[in-house]
Amino acid sequence: MILLDNHLADLARGFERISQVERWLQTEGRARLLQSYAQRREKYARARQAHAEKIGLLRKQLTTIAFVPGTMFIGGLGIAGAGAWLSAPLNIGLAPSIGGLALAFAGLVGLALLAIFLLWQFQITKPAPPAHPLRDDVLARVLPQWRAKLRGELPAPSSAFGDAGEHTFVAHLQTLPIDSMYVLYGVQQKPGDDVDTIVLGAKGIWVFEVKHWGGRVSWRAGEWIHERFDPARQTWTRADEQPPDQQRQRMIDEITKTLTMRAPDLVKRFPALRQIKGGVVFTISKTIYDVPADCPARWGFVSGWDKEIADTPIIPGVDARAIFLLLDALLDRHHEIDKDAPITSMSAHATKIARQAETRVDDWVAHE
Questions:
Q1: Which of 4, 136, 155, 219 is deepest in the core (most CB within 10 A)?
Q2: Cβ contact 184:225 at 8 Å
Q3: First to last CA, the chain
Q4: How far apart are CA 275 and CA 26, in angstroms?
C-alpha cells in the first residue's frame, strides 16, 4: 500500500495530465523519434558508403606505395641469404648478411607502418551508427515518476502514547503488496478531530480507530472497557476514555458526508463505497483481552486485517481516476480545516514532468 502525502492536492487532474503525456510519448513523441532515427539511418548508410569508397581508394594508394618497402624486405632477405652462402668461399665475412637483414627489417617496418596507417584511417573515419531512441530511455514512462510523488513519509511517533500505535499500524499497512490501495494517516474531516487511519482504493474504504492500550481490554454490555492495574490498591481501575467504536463511527459519518458532498456522482454510481469497512485496532499484543467470541464489534490486531483487505474483490468500475477523485475529496476537506499546511499540486507536478518529457524528445531530435 502507498502512504499518501497529506499535503497533496489536484490528484485527479494530475493523473489525467500525466496520462495524456504517456499517450503523447507513445504516439506523437514516438513517431517523431522514429522519423528522426530513420533519417539518421539514411545519413549513416550514405556515410558508410562514402567511407568504404575512401578506404578502397586509400588501400590502392598504399598498395602502390608498399612496393618500395616490400622490395626492400624481399631484397634484404635475398642479400642476407646470398651473403651467408658466399661468406666462406669469398671470405667476405658477415657484413653483407647483416646489411641484408637491416634492409629487410627496414622494409618490414615500412610495411607495418603502412598497415597501421590503413587500419587507423579505417577506424578513425568510420561513421558511428546512430543511437536508437527506444534504447536511450527517451520514451521512459512518466506515470511511475508522477506516482513517486504521492508517497508520504511516516513521521516518527511522538510522545503521545496513542501515536505509537498508529505509527505501528500504518507502518504495517505499507508492507502489504496492494498498489491499488492508499493509506491516509491523520487527516481531518472535522475541526479538532482527525481520523487515525483510512485505507481507500479499488477495493473500497476502510476506517480504523487505533488504540495503543495496555493493561486489560474487555467487551461488556455492548461497550469497550479499558482498565489499568493499580499496584498500590491491587485492583483494576477503569480508564476514562472515549469508546473507540463510537469514535470510529463519528469519523465514518464525517467521511460519508465529505464524499457525498464532494464526490456525489461516484457515491451514487458505486453504492459499495458507502459500505465502509474496518474496525478498532489494538496494537499491544501483551495486553489482556477479555472479549467474548460472539462480540459483534469489529476489532483486531495490527496484522488481523491483512486477509480481509487482500480477499476483498475490486469494485468494478472504480479505476485510478475514481480513486484519485475520492482522495481529492478527503484531502480538500483536510486542507480546509488545516489551513496553514503547505499544499503540493499534483497537476502542477504533472505539467513539470510533461515539459521534461517533451524537452527530452526535442533534444534527441535536434541532436546530431
A1: 4
A2: no
A3: 44
A4: 39
| Nearest C-alpha neighbor of 331 from the set 260, 242, 232, 258 | 258
> Residue 36: inside a domain, yes or no?
no
In a domain, 107, yes or no: yes
Residues in the chain: 368
What cell does 54 get?
A: 575512401
Domain region containing 97? 41-134
Q: Taking Cα atoms as reference points, which of 139, 118, 145 lies closest to residue 54?
A: 118
| Residue 192 main-chain phi, psi, to 5 deg | 80, 5
Closest CA relative to residue 4, chosen from 176, 185, 144: 185
* The three cell numbers locating residue 2: 502507498
List the one residue out of 335, 329, 198 whose CA is nearest residue 267.
329
* Number of domains comprising the chain: 2
Please check whether residues 124 and 141 belong to one and the same domain. no
Place of cell 503521545: 160
Counting as low any pLDDT under 70, the low residues of the chain are 51, 55, 58, 61-62, 65-70, 73, 76-77, 79-97, 99-101, 103-104, 107, 110-111, 114, 117-125, 127, 158-162, 368
Contact 226, 238 (CB under 8 A): yes
Q: C-alpha 35: how far from its chain's center?
A: 29
**Three cell numbers, residue 227:** 482498565
341-368 pLDDT, tens digit per residue, is 899 999 999 999 999 999 999 998 988 6
Residue 141 domain-assigned? yes
Q: Do 218 and 93 share a domain, yes or no?
A: no
In this structure, the answer to whether residues 301 and 334 fall within a common structural domain is yes
Flag whether the pTM goes above 0.85.
Answer: no
Domain boundary, last residue among 77, 111, 134:
134
Q: Return phi, psi of residue 38, to 5°.
A: -60, -40
CA distance 184 to 3: 6
